[in-house]
UniProtKB/TrEMBL annotation:
<feature type="region of interest" description="Disordered">
    <location>
        <begin position="1"/>
        <end position="50"/>
    </location>
</feature>
<feature type="coiled-coil region">
    <location>
        <begin position="167"/>
        <end position="201"/>
    </location>
</feature>
<keyword id="KW-0175">Coiled coil</keyword>
<keyword id="KW-0472">Membrane</keyword>
<keyword id="KW-1133">Transmembrane helix</keyword>
<protein>
    <recommendedName>
        <fullName>DUF4349 domain-containing protein</fullName>
    </recommendedName>
</protein>
<feature type="transmembrane region" description="Helical">
    <location>
        <begin position="241"/>
        <end position="265"/>
    </location>
</feature>
<feature type="compositionally biased region" description="Basic and acidic residues">
    <location>
        <begin position="16"/>
        <end position="27"/>
    </location>
</feature>
<feature type="domain" description="DUF4349">
    <location>
        <begin position="58"/>
        <end position="266"/>
    </location>
</feature>
<keyword id="KW-0812">Transmembrane</keyword>
<dbReference type="Pfam" id="PF14257">
    <property type="entry name" value="DUF4349"/>
</dbReference>
<dbReference type="InterPro" id="IPR025645">
    <property type="entry name" value="DUF4349"/>
</dbReference>
Length: 274
């Protein structure tokens, strides 16, 4: 076994990268995927059983985009709060935009995976008129399994290198083993971070909700009075007049050429008479 070999021999037969080839004897004993990222690597003295059949459950990431036209933004906000509390969801990001023509409230909502469908149905029923709806599901089980297997192997190799470090005979061997340990620890941190990210996206689905209200300026539907609309009309008329005057002024070179052309034409006509 590797534990009985000299430090140099062990360094040759066990590379630091788990994705590369290692000795045939060790490859045949590669571990099965751990049931969780916190599971400890198999110790050197513990035999690695090839009959272990730990499995990883399906990893499905759900995302949704929903745009709803509402009659009142504030009322829609209150309804949203009630729906979120009912489904144990929370707002990750909120953005409000108010223009002359419309009001927009954009929310990024995180909800437990099991409540995602119920949340979508709650917003779709009774909140307002659904303008657009897009739901997607992404199966990341294969990626999760692959990262888990590599992570488990890297942890085993890390323990091997730590044991090798204890019996290293030369300074060169010590430095090389320490460098391999450092690289393995960095790779393990990246893999564990990736698994945590996937778990977060799987356990909590994401919904991008947009609440939209169009401002209709008419006597039948708008709260804007006659005085305000009369003032707007005067302003628009004045702006149109100013635009007209500025447009005329922009033709000033032609105004200078016209008198010159007339003068030349009269002189030419006078000479022709003579």
């Amino acid at each position: 076994m590797l534990a009985d070999e000299s430090p140099k021999a062990m360094m040759i037969s066990v590379p630091h990268d788990s994705d590369k080839e290692i000795s045939e004897e060790y490859t045949n004993k590669a571990p099965t995927p751990p049931s969780s990222i916190s599971e400890k690597a198999v110790s050197e003295n513990e035999p690695i059983s090839t009959h272990k059949t730990d499995t990883i459950s399906k990893k499905i990431i759900k995302n949704g985009n929903l745009r709803i036209q509402v009659g009142d933004i504030k009322k829609a906000q209150n309804q949203t709060s009630e729906i979120l509390n009912k489904n144990q969801a929370y707002i990750q990001k909120e953005e409000f935009r108010n223009t002359d023509t419309d009001e927009n409230l954009n929310l990024v909502i995180r909800v437990p995976h099991k409540n995602f469908d119920a949340l979508i149905n709650s917003f779709s029923d009774g909140m307002g008129s659904v303008l657009s709806k897009n739901i997607s599901s992404d199966d990341v089980t294969e990626e999760y399994t692959d990262v888990s297997i590599k992570l488990a192997n890297k942890k085993i190799y890390l323990e091997k290198y730590r044991d090798m470090l204890k019996s290293a005979a030369t300074t060169k061997d010590i430095l090389e083993i320490q460098e391999n340990i450092r690289e393995l620890e960095d790779e393990i941190d990246v893999s564990e971070g990736r698994l945590r990210f996937i778990d977060d996206r799987v356990n909590y689905s994401t919904l991008n909700l947009s609440l939209y209200k169009e401002k209709v300026r008419s006597s039948a539907t708008s709260k804007i009075g006659f005085g305000s609309r009369f003032g707007d009309s005067i302003t628009e008329g004045w702006n149109s007049f100013v635009s007209f005057v500025l447009g005329i002024i922009s033709f000033w070179p032609f105004f200078l050429l016209i008198p010159l052309i007339i003068l030349l034409w009269r002189r030419w006509k006078a000479r022709r008479k003579k």
